[in-house]
Amino acid sequence: MKINVKLFATFRIGRGKIVYLDYYEGMTVKNIIDELGIKKEEIAIIIVGPHDGTPEKMLTFKVEPNMTVHLFPPVAGG
Amino acid sequence: MIERYQRNMNMLSKEEIIKINNAKICVIGCGGLGGFIIEGLTRLGFEKLTIVDKDVFDETNLNRQLFSSHSNLGELKATTGAKRIKEINNRCTPTPINDELNESNIIDIIKGHDIVIDAVDNVKTKLLLQEYCEILNIPLVHGAIGGWYGQVAVILPGDKLLSRIYRTLESGIEKTLGNPSFTPAIIANFMVSEALKLYLNKGDVLRNKLLMLDLLSNELDLIEFTK
After folding, report:
1. At the fourth CATH level, which superfamily is domain B3-224?
2. Do residue A75 and residue B145 have CB atoms under 8 angstroms apart?
3. Nearest residue of chain B to residue A52 (CA atoms)
4. Residues of chain B found within 8 Å of residue A71, distances taken between Cβ atoms
5. Average pLDDT over residues A3-26
6. Partner-chain contact B34 A70, CB within 8 Å
7. How many angstroms separate the CA atoms of B26 and B21, rounded?
8. Nearest CA in chain B to A56
9. Distances (CA, A) of B16 to B2, B45, B138, B186, B196
10. What is the pLDDT of residue B63?
11. Do the chains contact at A77 and B146, CB–CB below 8 Å?
């Protein structure tokens, strides 16, 4: 069983567009970003299925097999 | 119908063109995004723009900011923007404000406008715009760019989308990637299109949605947020 992690913008550098991680019981979004080497401070938005939010809200979210996690860095230039 | 708007027809009706001629739009930021937004809104027929920026043009702006040139380095961006508007269409009555938007002046600057456009380059001001647009019941068109990437959204009063996509961050990936000439042009024109649809109540606008553009991968993602 896998977890699909779709990465956006600069998160793709050195990781690719989609990363497939092995699922394990109790796996959280925090476990996923740790495995990918992404710091929570670098993330603006995390979306998992119908759930979305900032890292503060989403890091403890427990994923389920075959879910897709979307990770976005902040874009704020003008 | 004056000849300059002939090519807007039949995409827009005569009544719609007259309506946008009288709309009051406030563009916050006259830099990368703001320059293209002001140009696009003016050519489309928005004749009453308030344009806000405290900065002057410097050499680092020349790679992307539409109104910057060697001859106007050191000149105020909002004042230069207003001159450009009048050059395009002398029927226009631009209001340039050469000031930094902050909590003490934001109400005076944005009140009375039909739409506010977020073309600023920092999270703090973006969140301030969302807060005061809600208080004054004004729709906000949001855009942001960084390197190959950009995003667009429409925020109606109460939506608070920006609070969901930004935290207390002051900046984003643009600080390391910079901004080229093409990303602001593309995102700015998405924003012009959203402002037009929003004002005329036409088509679909990006409410509770974030359009994410990745020009490096040629991907356009539409992220839908739960209400």
Report:
1. NAD(P)-binding Rossmann-like Domain (3.40.50.720)
2. yes
3. B225
4. none
5. 96
6. no
7. 14
8. B167
9. 13, 10, 20, 24, 10
10. 96
11. yes
Mean pLDDT of chain A: 93
Cβ contacts of B83 within 8 Å, gap of 6 or more = none
Contact indicator for B171, B179 with CB cutoff of 8 Å: no
| Cβ-based contacts under 8 A for chains A and B | 96
* pLDDT for B171: 82
Mutate to test the interface with A, among B167, B179, B216 (most CBs of A within 10 A): B167
Higher pLDDT, B10 or A65: A65
CB A77 within 8 A of CB B145: yes
Q: What is the mean pLDDT of each run of 10 residues along chain B (227 residues)?
A: 81 94 98 98 98 98 97 98 97 97 98 98 96 98 98 97 82 90 98 98 96 96 86
- Find the CB nearest A74 among B148, B173, B217: B173
Both tokens assigned to B120:
């600023």
Give the pLDDT of residue B169: 65
ipTM: 0.88
Neighbours of A3 (CB within 10 A): 23
User: Between chains, do B145 and A77 touch, taking CB under 8 Å as contact?
Assistant: yes
Which domains does chain A possess? 2-72 (3.10.20.30)
Q: Do B167 and A44 touch (CB under 8 A)?
A: yes
More confident residue, B107 or A55: B107
